[in-house]
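Ticket #4471: structure export looks truncated?
Reporter: QA, pipeline team
Priority: medium

Steps to reproduce: submit the single chain below to the structure queue and open the exported record.
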Amino acid sequence: MKNLCMEKFNVFSAGTAPSKVNIHAIKVMDELNIDIRDQKSENVDLYHEKTFEFVVTVCNDAKDQCPNFSGGGEKIHWPITDPFSGWDYDQKQLNNFRKTRDSIKEKIDLFLNTWSMKND
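Actual output as written to the record:
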């Protein structure tokens, strides 16, 4: 999202259970020349007082646990299966991460096209 939308939106990443960036995610994003090594997911509680135009959740747990932000914002849910199955590097997991990456990219492209049509 940051790579595709920074000129249109301020993009933040937060989670209900934030952690470090998974090595498989780094690898599959490297395939697209996108470096996410320095990215991090912060705790969603840090953003309660922020105002957002959109709040996007990408898994059912996050949707169920995502707080209401004081600044409102349109809630969008993309039901995407979490590819995580462990922290150890395993070549077999890469395909699951690729599928997730590609699914998120499709959702972002659709979102941007819809947003652009509404704002032209």
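Status: closed, not a bug. The export was complete when the record was re-opened. Leaving a note from the reviewer for reference: Strands lie at 14-15, 42-43, 54-57, 74-77.
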